[in-house]
């Protein structure tokens, strides 16, 4: 608790910040409090009247300004009248000669940001200070003037600012250069006229002045690549002596290198020798900046990395914790893309595992996890256990990410890794930390079949005490999907039903779905699941009760029952379903609602037809995140078309291919669906003309002269209204199951019907029209999809000789191995 005496002291400008009569031991037992506790805007504004006193108390004025600055930075806003009154009162403080008070005056003027009319009042005082003999006044007045001035006033003081840039005093010159950086955003042309003075400041012997001059010079030239190259070339010849400016120059050089093409024939990149030379600089921060820049180069080679890795390896044994941390963090990033380059540093990083700084130890051990061999996994995991409880969640996530990559690299170690993950999953931690662990376990379950049973068991134990709703629902969904396929499905039902009893409504609803999956897929457990679902009918949440009622009706056979109907994805977006339900409720019809009538394309409000035409129609790809989810959505959409029922399992769906320009009146994109012996072209069409609708919309494909393919089915779109996408289909039969390379001409055919402005309905009569589309390209990559291979080496060795092809190729005489590899 804060006493009333402390509150009064906070308001009293003359009161000491600590009680004089108390000893240090007594003060330690008291609760610490802010010296600004209890400050109110009204009281502080009343105290600001001291600015009008004939005999100014500098200390009291400073404390009042401090309180005003505190209130402003805490988000307290002053009205225009209050700000004006305080501003005019503060201008009177220019009469005081106290340097400390003058600095506070500069700060409050910058925060109040007076209007253009009020700036004139204080400009004369600031210009007087800018020409003062006291350097502190000069530097601070320049900063304030450039903060509050406009372009008209800036032209009047430009001459003084140019002189300040080349001033002998480093504080004044730095203030002018930093002010130039702020002014360049809105007055670029004015600041650009200072180029000669800035060039002179680059030659300054003061490190900070040179640093600011190099930064401002680059800011003025950053939009001109040739000018930047010229500047970097001149400065890299040894003109820059300041370590800070040298670090800036290293970054600019790295940008120039990244923007240039890599040389052929194994030659070094331009300016690489400069970066390598900076590795021998006397300043440690320049050395590190150069090493970091080299490691972040695009397509960096082992030859280019070698000197940077050597320098970072030396930093690993430094006595300064900051150097050790910087080096190990950089090596950790390099290990993600070039683990072999970091292998030589493993011995040095072994010694950092026991470093007193746990952040360094964490980064060292995670780097070793990425670069070490399979035999070191057990030892490293034991060392992680000793200190993982002492580090923050941010570094715990780094550890888990390293283990995630190790799971993919050494799948044979899944038992050890799963045991480690289950142990740390029980420890305290935040959401991101727990989510990283759960995601890693899910990856093990998905990619390594032998890890499925143990992984599900560990996740079941975790949800017993899980405090994060999203993680609980994610795990329950996995249990419902994978549990019924396990060797003993019954053991998971207890964990799932416990969530129904103990958790919130969101988790309970997910648990109901998971239970129902066991009832659908496990005949021997169906009766037990029905009993549990009947108990859930008395839940106090509507969503939970509705789900239980829905699944019970299906499990008991009261309605049509199938896992696809219960858990499969809808063939239509929820927005389309919602609109269809609204139309059904509004229409006086006693017929039952038919979900098959809901359009597969999302219903979007028509705001601007031109803007709608620019939007891509591939809504399914925009909504989904993974390839599996995309395939499920497309498979559900195609499953609603009876003509495609006998095509078999969908192999792959391509990304939408635009067949029209975005600015045209009709927008068409094609998604290619690949089946074992068929191809289905799904043409997503959008009409952007408000005054008409299109009926009988179809796409005619010309397969003339193309062997091995024939058109089997063409399914038109009944009606296409403005702003609402729709789909037309063409089914192609293949005689050869292998990949094809085709260029298919396409024409959009439709019947145009004008809309009657008086009724808003389309006219009965229309006319046929067509619209030429771009050719549809079918390429070999359409018949290839990604496959998850946990262990590439083992999978490669398992392949038989029948899939192996041996041949010889001649490359002629080449200059070296690098040139030959590039030809391959």
Low-pLDDT runs: 1-11, 13-23, 605-625
Mean pLDDT across the residues is 81
Rg (C-alpha, Å): 36 Å
Instruction: Let me know the number of strands.
Output: 12
Structural class: alpha+beta
Give the CA-CA distance, first to last residue: 75 Å
List the helices and strands and how they pair.
Blueprint: H1 4-11, H2 24-29, H3 41-47, H4 58-73, H5 80-91, H6 99-112, H7 116-130, H8 135-148, H9 151-165, H10 170-183, H11 188-192, H12 195-202, H13 207-221, H14 225-235, H15 243-258, H16 272-278, H17 284-295, H18 302-316, H19 321-337, H20 339-342, H21 346-352, H22 358-371, H23 377-387, H24 393-409, H25 414-425, H26 431-447, H27 452-463, H28 469-482, H29 490-502, H30 505-521, H31 526-536, H32 542-555, H33 563-567, H34 574-586, H35 609-614, H36 619-623, H37 627-639, E1 652-653, E2 657-658, E3 666-674, E4 678-687, E5 692-701, E6 709-715, E7 717-720, E8 726-734, E9 742-744, E10 746-754, E11 767-772, E12 776-778, H38 792-798, H39 817-823
Antiparallel strand pairs: 1-3, 2-3, 3-4, 4-8, 5-7, 5-10, 6-8, 9-12, 10-11
Helix pairs in contact: 3-4, 4-6, 5-6, 6-8, 7-8, 8-10, 9-10, 10-13, 12-13, 13-15, 14-15, 15-16, 15-17, 16-17, 17-18, 17-19, 18-19, 19-22, 21-22, 22-23, 22-24, 24-26, 25-26, 25-27, 26-27, 27-28, 27-29, 28-30, 29-30, 30-31, 30-32, 31-32
């Amino acid at each position: 608790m804060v006493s009333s005496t402390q509150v009064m002291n906070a308001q009293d400008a003359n009161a000491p910040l600590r009680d004089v009569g108390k000893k240090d031991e007594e003060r330690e037992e008291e609760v610490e409090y802010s010296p600004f506790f209890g400050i109110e805007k009204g009281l502080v504004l009343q105290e600001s009247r001291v600015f009008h006193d004939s005999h100014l108390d500098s200390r009291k004025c400073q404390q009042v300004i401090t309180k005003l600055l505190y209130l402003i930075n805490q988000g307290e806003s002053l009205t225009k009248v209050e700000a004006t009154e305080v501003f005019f009162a503060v201008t009177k403080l220019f009469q005081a000669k106290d340097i400390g008070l003058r600095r506070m005056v500069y700060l409050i003027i910058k925060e109040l940001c007076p209007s253009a009319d009020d700036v004139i009042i204080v400009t004369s005082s600031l210009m007087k200070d800018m020409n003062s003999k006291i350097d502190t006044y000069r530097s601070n007045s320049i900063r304030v003037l450039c903060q509050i001035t406009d372009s008209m006033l800036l032209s009047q003081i430009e001459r003084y600012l140019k002189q300040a840039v080349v001033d002998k005093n480093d504080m004044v010159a730095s203030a002018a250069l930093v002010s130039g950086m702020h002014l360049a955003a809105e007055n670029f042309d004015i600041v650009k006229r200072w180029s000669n003075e800035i060039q002179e400041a680059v030659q300054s012997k003061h490190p900070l002045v040179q640093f600011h001059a190099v930064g401002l010079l680059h800011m003025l030239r950053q939009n001109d690549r040739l000018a930047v190259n010229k500047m970097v070339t001149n400065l890299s010849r040894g003109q820059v002596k300041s370590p800070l400016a040298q670090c800036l120059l290293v970054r600019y050089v790295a940008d120039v290198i990244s923007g240039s093409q890599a040389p052929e024939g194994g030659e070094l990149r331009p300016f690489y020798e400069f970066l390598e030379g900076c590795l021998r600089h006397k300043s440690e921060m320049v050395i590190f900046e150069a090493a970091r820049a080299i490691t972040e180069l695009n397509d960096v080679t082992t030859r280019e990395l070698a000197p940077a890795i050597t320098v970072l390896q030396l930093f690993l044994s430094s006595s300064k914790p900051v150097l050790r941390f910087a080096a190990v963090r950089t090596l950790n990033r390099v290990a993600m893309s070039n683990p072999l380059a970091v292998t030589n540093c493993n011995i040095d990083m072994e010694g950092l595992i026991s470093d007193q700084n746990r952040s360094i130890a964490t980064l060292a051990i995670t780097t070793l996890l990425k670069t070490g061999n399979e035999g070191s996994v057990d030892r490293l995991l034991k060392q992680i256990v000793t200190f993982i409880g002492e580090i923050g969640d941010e570094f715990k996530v780094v550890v888990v990410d390293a283990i995630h990559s190790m799971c993919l690299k050494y799948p044979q170690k899944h038992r050890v890794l799963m045991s480690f993950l289950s142990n740390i999953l029980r420890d305290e931690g935040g959401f991101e930390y727990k989510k990283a662990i759960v995601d890693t376990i899910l990856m093990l379950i998905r990619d390594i079949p032998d890890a499925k049973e143990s992984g599900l068991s560990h996740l079941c134990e975790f949800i017993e005490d899980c405090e994060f709703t999203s993680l609980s629902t994610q795990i329950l969904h996995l249990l419902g999907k994978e549990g019924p396929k396990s060797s003993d499905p019954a053991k998971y039902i207890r964990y799932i039903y416990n969530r129904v009893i103990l958790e919130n409504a969101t988790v309970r609803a997910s648990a109901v779905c998971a239970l129902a999956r066991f009832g659908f897929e496990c005949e021997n457990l169906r009766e037990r699941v029905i009993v549990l679902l009947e108990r859930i009918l008395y839940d106090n949440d509507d969503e939970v009760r509705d789900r239980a009622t829905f699944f019970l009706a299906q499990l008991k056979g009261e309605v049509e029952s199938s896992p696809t109907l219960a858990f499969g994805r809808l063939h239509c977006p929820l927005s389309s379903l919602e609109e269809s339900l609204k139309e059904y409720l509004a229409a006086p019809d006693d017929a039952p609602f038919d979900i098959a009538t809901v359009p597969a394309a999302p219903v979007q409000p028509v705001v601007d037809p031109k803007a709608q035409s620019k939007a891509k129609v591939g809504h399914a790809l925009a909504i989904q995140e993974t390839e599996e989810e995309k395939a499920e959505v497309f498979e559900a959409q195609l499953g609603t078309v009876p003509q495609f029922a006998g095509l078999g399992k969908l192999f792959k769906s391509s990304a939408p291919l635009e067949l029209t320009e975005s600015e045209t009146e009709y927008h068409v994109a094609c998604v290619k669906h690949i089946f074992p012996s068929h191809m289905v072209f799904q043409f997503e069409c959008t009409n952007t003309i408000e005054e008409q609708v299109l009926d009988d919309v179809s796409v005619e494909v010309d397969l003339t002269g193309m062997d091995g393919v024939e058109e089997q089915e063409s399914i038109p779109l009944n009606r296409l209204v403005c702003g609402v996408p729709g789909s037309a289909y063409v089914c192609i039969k293949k005689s050869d199951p292998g990949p094809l390379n085709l260029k298919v001409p396409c024409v959009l055919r439709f019947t145009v019907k004008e809309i009657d402005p008086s009724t808003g309905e389309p006219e009965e009569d229309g006319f046929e029209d067509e619209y030429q589309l771009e050719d549809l390209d079918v390429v070999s990559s359409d018949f290839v999809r990604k496959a998850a291979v946990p262990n590439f080496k083992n999978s490669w060795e398992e392949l038989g000789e029948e899939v192996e092809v041996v041949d010889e190729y001649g490359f002629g005489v080449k200059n070296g191995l690098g040139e030959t590899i590039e030809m391959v």
